[in-house]
Backbone:
RNA sequence: GGUUCCGUAGCUCAGCUGGAUAGAGCAACAGAUUUCUAAUCUGUAGGUCUAGGGUUCGAAUCCCUACGGAAUCACCA
């Protein structure tokens, strides 16, 4: 299917070639005409003046005349300063609409035979997920869906950080203060329960530091000597030695956490094709270090630790293996990257990880490149900004985090309340009520997060709860629901909107605008894929919904006074809008209801 | 201090491969409903695009400098 903007570009190139001789296609700048001017697409002529050797106005006039005479799709033009505004025929737009409606995969690219892995979520198992994780999960899921829509074979993976000192802290605190508490005995969600003990550890730790410093020990020393910290470190060593008692406790408590995460993931609507556990992967990468040593990319210090010197690249020296031979974060990331590219024959690997790790990924790519892996340039760090509260950054240990489960429950409850107040839920059974509340509440949350550019730090103010009006998920969902309601009514009147195509039909300006927007869906999906940005899709969906609401307000569709042919056409157009809204929102992981 | 990212309306954000008079939403104010679903629509008001310089016919957009903010520069992950 041809994109109208591309078509106009091609036509202009033909015109310029016929009038002035061949030009560099890059000089042909076509964009959508601004709303305040007459026309569909605009050619900016300034870049062409060297070729035409005429004034901007004269150039625009000549090209406009050539196009109306020779390009079948162009029916009119006007010139304002150096801008040539072109109007396409209703026949063209009608044809466009019928092509879109006839393509049940419209907007999705054909298979690209590229395989792309998206790693996201990657939680620690010592505490429940919070708002920052929500952004990560929604971004990862959505980006994967967008890449899929771009035709790529896509793998979603999660790398769970299930080992390390932080888990030992929770374990130790549970042993000391837990009194055998379990999710079953307390009714607490497993990840929350384990998180509570992480907090308990920190409390006890701080108390011990205070005591030690009160007795005259310097604070730095106290942090190292606090008995509970020494115990945690001891526990980590026992875990690494696979001490059966510690290992069993670790498995048990991690199990609780996984049950909790599972529930959160289900509420969020995210999923994974494969889950990695660091306890299985943390030893990977050591042979790569060996290889790097042999090839001279890495070097060994006196204490036996292995490093790479990146000072020539403007970075620092980076540790790759400790003196005792154990691996660090970078070691295992090198290992997993190599394993993944080998195992899945990846073309691209996308890491959805916060911007606090920009440096790490910069180094990772550089090292892989120096080791000679040709695919190093195909690693992409989708670096997203932090979610901040009005008071600043969230801190788990200070209890200022916005808990993921709480927030979702609150959103759903708010959606329920509002719907009830507006009487939207009258006559529905409780299952439908729950379903709609969940869809709308989660839609509001997801859209709120995904509409902003991933790179940017975003602000969340819990006191001014997330909106349900304006540029929001529910606004788009509502537009969809209204169209569905319209479609049901049409069916009741025996109106079949399929097959309404009439190339001779005269279009209202708003109808042309809607078709133009529908035609922009495919390019939007491509752009979102190239930029790894769900925000592109969110903006698109909002534009389309807003445009439709204006149209629906101004033009009757199924009212009595409307002629039969108009009823059919307008219903058909509306149904197309609903279909694309649903598809766009699907790329964001947002459901759209049939009614609300 | 080095590196990277960000700075657009009171607030939250679009626009950034250079193009016409910088756009939305929220909040404020004024309207539209015996509803084809008002979770909607219309209008008013709100701007030195942080500042200064440069490139250009043309700069919110590209380059430089300054200012302000964030992240990072661990034998944590």
Residues:
């Amino acid at each position: 299917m041809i994109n109208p903007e591309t078509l106009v570009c091609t036509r202009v190139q033909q015109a310029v070639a016929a009038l002035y001789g061949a030009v560099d296609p890059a000089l042909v700048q076509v964009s959508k005409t601004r709303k305040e001017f007459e026309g569909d697409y605009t050619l900016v002529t300034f870049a062409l003046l060297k070729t035409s050797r005429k004034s901007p106005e004269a150039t625009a006039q000549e090209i406009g005349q050539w196009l109306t005479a020779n390009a079948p799709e162009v029916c009119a033009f006007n010139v304002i300063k150096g801008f040539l505004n072109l109007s396409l025929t209703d026949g063209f737009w009608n044809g466009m609409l019928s092509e879109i409606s006839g393509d049940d995969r419209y907007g999705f690219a054909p298979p690209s035979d590229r395989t792309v892995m998206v790693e996201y979520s990657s939680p620690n198992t010592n505490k429940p997920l919070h708002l920052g994780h929500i952004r990560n999960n929604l971004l990862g899921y959505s980006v994967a869906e967008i890449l899929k829509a771009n035709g790529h074979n896509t793998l979603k993976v999660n790398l769970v950080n299930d080992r390390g000192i932080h888990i030992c802290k929770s374990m130790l605190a549970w042993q000391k203060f837990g009194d055998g508490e379990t999710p079953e005995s307390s009714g607490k969600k497993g990840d929350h329960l384990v998180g509570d003990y992480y907090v308990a550890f920190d409390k006890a730790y701080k108390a011990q530091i205070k005591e030690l410093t009160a007795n005259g020990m310097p604070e730095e020393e106290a942090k190292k000597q606090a008995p509970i910290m020494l115990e945690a470190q001891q526990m980590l060593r026992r875990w690494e030695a696979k001490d059966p008692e510690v290992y069993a406790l670790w498995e048990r408590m991690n199990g609780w956490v996984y049950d909790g995460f599972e529930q959160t993931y289900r509420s969020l609507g995210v999923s994974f094709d494969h889950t990695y556990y660091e306890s299985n992967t943390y030893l990977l990468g050591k042979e790569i270090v060996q290889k790097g040593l042999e090839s001279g990319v890495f070097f060994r210090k006196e204490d036996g630790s292995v490093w790479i010197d990146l000072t020539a690249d403007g970075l620092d020296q980076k540790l790759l293996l400790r003196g005792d031979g154990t691996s660090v974060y970078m070691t295992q990331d090198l290992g997993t990257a190599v394993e993944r590219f080998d195992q899945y024959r990846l073309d691209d690997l996308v890491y959805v990880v916060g911007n606090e790790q920009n440096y790490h990924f910069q180094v990772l790519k550089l090292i892989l490149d120096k080791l000679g892996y040709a695919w190093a340039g195909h690693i992409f760090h989708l670096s997203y900004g932090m979610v901040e509260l009005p008071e600043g950054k969230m801190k788990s240990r200070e209890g200022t985090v916005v808990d993921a489960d709480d927030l979702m429950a609150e959103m759903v409850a708010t959606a329920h309340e509002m719907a009830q107040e507006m009487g939207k839920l009258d006559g529905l059974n409780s299952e439908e009520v729950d379903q709609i509340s969940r869809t709308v509440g989660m839609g509001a949350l997801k859209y709120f997060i995904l509409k902003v550019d991933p790179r940017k730090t975003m602000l969340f103010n819990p006191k001014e709860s997330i909106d349900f009006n304006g540029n929001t998920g529910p606004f788009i969902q509502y537009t969809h629901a209204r169209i569905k309601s319209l479609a049901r009514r049409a069916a009741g009147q025996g109106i079949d909107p399929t097959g309404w195509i009439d190339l001779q039909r005269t279009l209202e300006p708003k109808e042309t605008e809607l078709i133009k927007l529908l035609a922009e869906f495919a390019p939007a999906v491509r752009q979102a894929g190239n930029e790894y940005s769900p925000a592109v899709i969110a903006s698109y969906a909002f534009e389309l919904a807003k445009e439709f609401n204006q149209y629906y307000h101004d033009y009757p569709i199924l009212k009595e006074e409307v002629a039969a042919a108009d009823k059919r056409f307008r219903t058909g157009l509306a149904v197309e809008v609903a279909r694309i809204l649903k598809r766009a929102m699907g790329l964001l992981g947002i459901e759209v209801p049939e009614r609300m």
Remarks:
- The first strand of chain A starts at residue 29 and ends at 32.
- The CA atoms of residues 202 and 397 of chain A lie 7 Å apart.
